[in-house]
């Protein structure tokens, strides 16, 4: 069997074409800066030493960025420090500090030209990663949709704040991942309202955008209460998907009984059906409301507790399936945080 190294898998996503584009963008942007500030450049400015980067330089940049996620220092300049305490020879040997600061991934566009979208400068990069991710992997039966926050405190027009997330400030992406392997299959960057006219909520539309390439392949889509509406559920079923997820009981079209379930007893279950869609409410420690089309209200699962001293518990099958398959995006986010 052929043995693969991590760099082989890295190169599957970051092909020579993508690296060459980054190299070209870097050269164009830097030379534009030099032309605009030619008269004001200081004698020892790093821009005076500029030379066009090679593909090898760009790959060194990527390696440095990943290494910075593993080796944490107070500031970026410390990685090239000559201080005996902070000095890490590896970084200076791989790439100079001045060249590191000049490398870019953005698409160059003059300041006097209006941008097609707020994400225009990096959109090509997102599209490339999504394209390669989809070409290299066939999604399993169960897929999960969720929000992802990428930590960022810089100045951009689409930075988001979400106090309920571990990463509160940053860029928000809607992510589609395989529930079993946590493989990220597609991510769409949220940059605000896009002006599209749709009968569905904006969050529901993001779900449709993510799963559209997988229509009529009988995948089961898992998502949380932030996304689900009856309209989204029906659109997905019509497109050949199965659905499962928690849902807010006050959504439009839900039975009034589900909206006033404060006095339910532990273990009590309430269920309604509209065509193929099952709306189910069950009380454990708190009331949980589910929406699904691939489970019945009388299907139960026996759950073994993690603590052997606790008794086994019975849960509706749709809730057990949701707990098992919804964490695909969360695991992917957890793995990424080790390097951010």
Keyword list:
340 residues; single chain; elongated; alpha+beta; two-stranded antiparallel ribbon; nine-stranded mixed beta sheet; 11 strands
Description:
The protein has 11 helices and 11 strands. The protein is an alpha+beta fold. It has 2 domains: 6-102, no CATH class; 140-337, no CATH class. Strands 1, 2, 3, 4, 5, 6, 7, 8 and 9 form a 9-stranded mixed β-sheet that branches. Strands 10-11 form a two-stranded antiparallel ribbon. The chain is elongated and about 75 Å long. The chain starts with 5 loop residues before the first helix and ends with a helix. The mean pLDDT is 84.
In round numbers, the mean pLDDT is: 84
Q: Give me the Rg, rounded.
A: 25 Å
Q: What is the strand tally?
A: 11
Tally of helical segments: 11
Instruction: State the major sheet.
Output: 9 strands, mixed
Number of domains: 2
* Terminal Cα span: 34 Å
